Amino acid sequence: MKPTNPVFTGIETTVFETMSRLARTHQAVNLGQGFPDVDGPEDIRKTAAEALIDGPNQYPPMLGLPELRKAVAESNRRFHGLEVDPETEVLVTSGATEALADCIFALVSPGDEVVLIEPLYDCYLPLVKQAGGVPVRVRVTPPDWRLDKEALEAAFSDKTKAILLNNPMNPTAKVFSDEELGFVADLCIKHDVYAICDEVYEHLVFDGAKHRPLMTFEGMRERAVRIGSAGKTFSLTGWKVGYVTGPAALMDPIAKAHQWVTFTTPPNLQKAVAYGLGKDDSYYEELAGDLTAKRDRMARGLKNLGFSVLPCAATYFLTCGFEGLGLGETDVAACETLVREAGVAAVPVSAFYGSDAPSGYIRFCFCKQDWVIDEALARLSAFLTAERAESA
Questions:
Q1: 179, 170, 39: which is closest to 117 by C-alpha?
Q2: Fewer CB atoms inside 10 A, N or C side of the chain?
Q3: In whole numbers, what is the pLDDT of the chain averaged over residues?
């Protein structure tokens, strides 16, 4: 038979799904896949339920319900000082992953180079390849995740069409500094490059820090698009509601791509997200505060067990070194040991690299109930204590 699409044929199942399957098989505490184990605010869910019953439940406008587009525009103004036209500069999508696909398919042509910063979210590479783009990878490396400016500058050329920037960054939990972002902006302007900004963790930033979109830097308003996620902002990841903000000239082709991917998103969920974006500042402060407490709870426990815990400025994730714990020589081996023998699922950080990845780090997800975090730590403690006794 004729071959199928080589970009997707034989591609490995996402590491998140693989570890989740192993977690179910071994009845493990799942700290691998990045989703909260408690649903988001009840008032938002009630708004969705009421809208589902009240209707209408037919196709909403392709760009999204006007009330949600207005809410996204207002959120941009409120949190980032960006003035956005909801009619021409906002698009609602069925999740941030769809938004990424729309942006890449609309802005990248065959042969265009796209700069990617590793470690990277696993959908970036296949989407760029499917668009015919040529990935040019630059990496940040643990434990400090420093951006190598010389390497980044060398990655840009006249062939570069776009950079895909994940900030705050999964899995590193890095928040790019203003200096780093300014350097990226200067390169984009110098080489006439678009910036596709995956900013789904924009409200999950800790220790009093604030997220600053690349779009707010001088010269970037007309060449950057930014992607947000209701799933992350409201702990409703199963809803798959995302949104794209950008200049009208770029939003037009992005909307055309969206037209042929999903066309639209459930109207009741859109109404509920519009309501949610209007919540007062206390909601967003409590969201970040609650996650900070969970981060600290897990970090203390892991450090006490002998893991080296890397700094975490945002997101749902802690990256840890496991040297000296006897879990195996690689991160994949360590994760397999933990899920099979300790009953705790984590994710190998090497899965977020294209090749030649550092193999001494694993990622734990902390957006869980306190008792789940405590249970995972207790299982890890019991396993590691038994291992040490056996090797003594």
A1: 170
A2: N
A3: 95
CATH code of the domain containing 69: 3.40.640.10
Kindly state the average pLDDT of the residues 195-220: 97
CATH number for the domain spanning 23: value is 3.90.1150.10
* Residue 191 belongs to some domain of the structure: yes
Query: Which residue has better confidence, 49 or 12?
Result: 49
Mind listing the pLDDT tens digit for each residue in 89-135?
Answer: 999 999 999 999 999 999 999 999 999 999 999 899 999 999 999 99
Residue type, 226: R
What's the distance, Cα to Cα, between the start and end of the chain in Å?
58
Nearest to 212 by CA among 292, 144, 313: 313
For residue 392, the model assigns a pLDDT of 63
The structure tokens listed for 377 are: 């730590």
* Residues 214, 339 within the same domain: no
Same domain for 165 and 255? yes
11 touches 5 (CB < 8 A): no
Q: Among 247, 279, 311, where does a domain finish?
A: 279
Query: Both 233 and 319 in a single domain?
Result: no
Q: Is the predicted pLDDT of residue 273 greater than 90, yes or no? A: yes
For 63, residues 6+ apart whose C-beta sits below 8 A from its C-beta are 69, 90, 91, 92, 255
Task: Give yes or no: residues 209 and 350 share one domain.
Answer: no
Asked if residue 388 has pLDDT above 80, the reply is no
Is the same domain home to 343 and 256? no
Instruction: Write the pLDDT tens digit of every residue in 354-377.
Output: 888 999 999 999 999 999 999 999
Round to whole Å and give the CA distance between 337 and 340: 5
pLDDT at 378: 98
Token reading at 209: 């820090």
Residue type, position 160, single letter: T
Interval 288-335: pLDDT, tens: 999 999 999 999 999 999 999 999 999 999 999 999 999 999 999 999
List the domain range (segments joined by +) for residue 202: 42-279
Task: Note whether 314 and 181 are same-domain residues.
Answer: no
257, 279, 301: which is the final residue of a domain?
A: 279
CB 370 within 8 A of CB 334: no
Whether residues 295 and 217 fall in one domain? no
Cα–Cα distance between 377 and 102 in angstroms, integer? 40
Total of domains in the chain? 2
**Strands of 160-166's sheet in order across:** 90-93, 242-245, 224-229, 194-198, 160-166, 113-118, 134-139
